[in-house]
Amino acid sequence: MHGSRRNNVVESFFSTGGSSGGNNNSSSSDDDALLREVRERANGIYDFLVYSRRFLHQHPELMYKEEITSAYVQKVLGDLDIQFTTGWGKNTKQNRISGSGGYGIVADIGTGGPPCVLLRADMDALPILERTEGVNEFKSQNDGKMHACGHDGHTTMLLGAANLLKSMENSINGTVRLMFQPAEEGGAGGKRMREEGVLTMDPVVKHAFGLHLWPTIPSGSVASRSGALLAAFEQFEILVSGVGGHAAMPHQTIDPIVAASTIVMNLQTIISRNLSPLESGVCSVTKFEAGDAYNVIPHSALLRGTIRALSTETLLSLKDRVLHVVETTAAMHGCNVTIEWAPDFYPPTVNDPLLFESFSKYVGGMVAQDSKLTNIEPTMGAEDFAFLAEHVPSTFFLLGQGSGKSPDSSFGLHHPHFAIDESVLPQGVELHVNVALRALRKLADDEN
Question: 414 a known binding residue?
């Protein structure tokens, strides 16, 4: 689809204004007309959405290495006559994380002037061996890499939104900025793009919105909450060093495996004994690596894991406590220890209360007729959309995809059997487009 003609439905939507002005009945009628228009158009590109999602799923790429993914996004935007810039999300931590980065893409649709709202999608995959043999014919072609967190769907839905928004461009009052982001899975790609100016370049972004496919929520539903929705998180790597030797003569060694095992157990007391029962926190050790032979006590043992909390203050408190437990436990066993943290800890993803309130009554109907937003408790998953929400009022949504229509669509995130219910792809497009247009209208109303 090339170019844009004026769209009477969109123009009427902007001209009537929201609850702060205009006739309420007229405004409601225009809202309904826009919902119908967007739904029809989103369903009309279903084949494109499925093709895009499956292509991206077959070509998963790890953080800061999203070359094929970025090239595909650029091709689609180019075919739509959408101007974009590349080179976003450069890896400034190459001493800690491999890959040069720079595969992020930013595109503006609309007048090119204020007000401006941002829609964001992440593009990177995970180092997981996909296990969907016999279930889908478009499984990963890159062994050991998999889109197990839905980022192929997220990128596809934002491309679909680009299609619809471009077709309405001449009727949009303001600018919708599209942010295709690399390195969400621990690489802080959102922070890199924020530092590079994705929020502050002209026109300055006033609000940011994002979504995540969520398998524990029924398809056709949207969930979120005011305040903290997703956790702050930090990663750690602990190297315990002792003195190796023969397994038959442990008294001649300083056993790092025993020391590391004690560290694992002692870390479990932090949440139960150092954190208020009224607060939420997680401390999980996810890797324990030591030794190569059954009869050799190794020189060292390696632990990796994560801590999470619903506030930055609690996360930093947990971090201090982890350091103390690790150092004192290692010393008790006569071992040396080093602990390294990830280059960037993620803050919690916090939905702006006022912005969330202004959208909460409408969002459900944006993806399914008569549907309502489900208010949920926070989850200890983390998202680097948080780096945007730290700087501009933002809202993040969880889009249900747990229908079971796809054989593996109810498996959890990061599971080797995880699959997307592709029937929800148009719903994500609808959510993006409706949220962006409603936010632009609200900003215009607030200025009048």
Answer: yes
Can you say whether the dihedral through the CA atoms of 406, 407, 413, 414 is positive or negative? negative
Would you say 116 is a known binding-site residue?
Answer: no
Q: How far apart are CA 420 and CA 411, in angstroms?
A: 9
Task: For residues 329 and 264, give the distance between their C-alpha atoms in angstroms, rounded to a whole number.
Answer: 10
Among 393, 398, 373, 368, which Cα is nearest to 383's? Answer: 398
Whether the CB-CB separation of 240 and 337 falls below 8 Å is answered with yes
Whether the upstream peptide bond of residue 115 has omega within 30° of 0, thus cis, is: yes
Place of tokens 């792809």: 425
Element spanning 109, H or E: strand 101-110
Q: What is the pLDDT of residue 69?
A: 99
The verdict on whether residue 299 carries a ligand-binding annotation is no
Residues of the chain with pLDDT under 50: 1, 19-22
pTM of the model: 0.93
Task: Pick the last residue of a domain from 316, 341, 366.
Answer: 341
Q: Cβ-count burial of 138 within 10 angstroms (0-12 exposed, 13-18 middle, 19+ buried)?
A: middle
Q: CB-based burial of residue 11 (10 Å sphere; 0-12 exposed, 13-18 middle, 19+ buried)?
A: middle
Q: What per-residue confidence (pLDDT) applies to 5?
A: 65
Cα separation, 323 vs 312, whole angstroms:
17
Is 3 within the bounds of a domain?
A: no
Asked if 59 and 172 sit in the same domain, the reply is yes
Q: Please check whether residue 2 lies inside any domain of the structure.
A: no
Distance CA(24)–CA(33), nearest Å, equals: 14
Same domain, 254 and 189: no
Residue 151 marked as a ligand binder: yes
As for how many domains the chain has, the answer is 2
Q: What is the DSSP letter of 423?
A: G
**Residues 398, 236: Cα–Cα separation, whole Å:** 28
Of 306, 326, 341, which one is at a domain's C-terminal end? 341
CA distance 122 to 230: 16
- Asked whether 433 and 165 are in contact (CB, 8 A), the reply is yes
Q: What is the pLDDT of residue 19?
A: 46
The burial class, CB within 10 Å (0-12 / 13-18 / 19+), for 95 is: exposed
Q: How far apart are CA 215 and CA 381, in angstroms?
A: 13
Q: Is 447 annotated as a binding residue?
A: no
| 3-state class (DSSP) for residue 101 | strand
Residue 366 tokens read as: 């944006």
The secondary element (H helix, E strand) that includes residue 370 is: none
